[in-house]
Each structure stands twice: as structure tokens, then as C-alpha cells.
Task: inverse folding
């Protein structure tokens, strides 16, 4: 855990500025409750051409909520850095739930993984957005680096599993419907 504190301290000593203090709360807000990713999932769901991927993004986010926020956070019950170092000048409200894994990071990586697997060129947009949201959690002192790393690893696993398993299930469902003549 010493390395976690060292990294958090380095981030503050090297990057802390008025601009970053203004920017990071706004970036982290995009990830609140997976908001930006839910909006993207719904927009994709509305488009007939991208409906399947929108559905998979939303399913992946739901799985992440259940596994990461519902189970792991309460099982690990790790305190947040801002709970342990109450002298830090917080730029956002102090979160009430536990720290590991980072839900913002996990949701961002789930969505970015699914979207990038679907369209590699879209990765140029969603991967930097996910990375920015993840970094904001460190800058804002609400997660340890290992929380963000854990959220990222879990996000990749859930994102890949959702994408590949979901595609197989949806393809089998469509094939079954086509065989019965229900879909042309």
C-alpha cells in the first residue's frame, strides 16, 4: 500500500494546478454512475445499425455494477484515500461507498473495450475518455492506484466476456428465428 500513497503524492506534487483542479472534477463527472457510457449505449441502441453493440454496452455496464460495485466493493471493504487522509483538500464530495475496485474506471473500461472490439477506429475516442476518467479518480484522491488498476482489469474481463459471449448468444438467437422464418 506504500506504493499507492507514493503515486498519489507524486500526482499531486507534479500535476496539481488551478487548471487541473477545474478539469478533473468535470471529467470524473462524466463517469458518475456510468453516465456517459449509458448515454453512449442508449444512442447506439437507438440506431438500428449499431443496436447490438449498444445492447452489449448496457449489459456489460449492468454486469460491472453487480460484480464490482455490488459484490467486490463490499467484500473487499477497502477505505478510500480521502477517508484515511482527511487533511486533503477535496474538490468533489467524498464518496460514501468503498474504494476497490474503482467503479468509474471499471464502467469506462467495460464500455471502451466493447466499443473498441466492435469498431477499432472508435477506440481513438473511447479509450482516451476512459483513461481520463480513470486518472481523474487518482487526481481527486478518491481511489488508490490499485483500485483503478483493479477496475481496469475487471473492466477488460467483463467487457471482453460480454462482447464475445453476447455476440454468440445474439447470433444464435437470430439464427434460430431465421430458421423458423420469423426474421427475413
Result:
Amino acid at each position: 500500500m506504500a506504493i499507492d500513497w507514493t503515486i498519489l503524492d507524486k500526482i499531486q506534487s507534479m500535476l496539481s494546478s488551478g487548471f487541473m483542479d477545474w478539469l478533473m472534477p468535470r471529467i470524473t463527472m462524466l463517469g458518475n454512475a456510468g453516465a456517459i457510457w449509458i448515454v453512449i449505449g442508449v444512442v447506439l441502441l437507438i440506431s438500428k445499425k449499431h443496436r447490438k453493440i449498444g445492447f452489449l454496452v448496457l449489459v456489460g455496464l449492468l454486469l460491472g455494477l453487480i460484480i464490482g460495485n455490488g459484490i467486490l466493493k463490499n467484500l473487499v471493504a477497502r477505505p478510500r484515500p480521502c477517508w484515511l487522509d482527511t487533511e486533503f483538500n477535496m474538490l468533489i464530495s467524498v464518496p460514501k461507498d468503498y474504494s476497490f475496485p474503482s467503479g468509474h474506471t471499471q464502467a469506462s473500461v467495460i464500455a471502451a473495450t466493447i466499443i473498441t472490439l466492435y469498431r477499432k477506429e472508435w477506440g481513438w475516442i473511447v479509450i482516451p475518455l476512459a483513461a481520463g476518467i480513470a486518472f481523474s479518480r487518482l487526481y481527486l484522491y478518491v481511489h488508490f492506484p490499485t483500485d483503478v488498476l483493479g477496475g481496469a482489469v475487471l473492466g477488460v474481463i467483463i467487457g471482453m466476456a460480454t462482447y464475445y459471449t453476447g455476440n454468440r448468444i445474439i447470433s444464435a438467437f437470430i439464427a434460430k428465428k431465421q430458421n423458423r422464418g420469423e426474421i427475413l
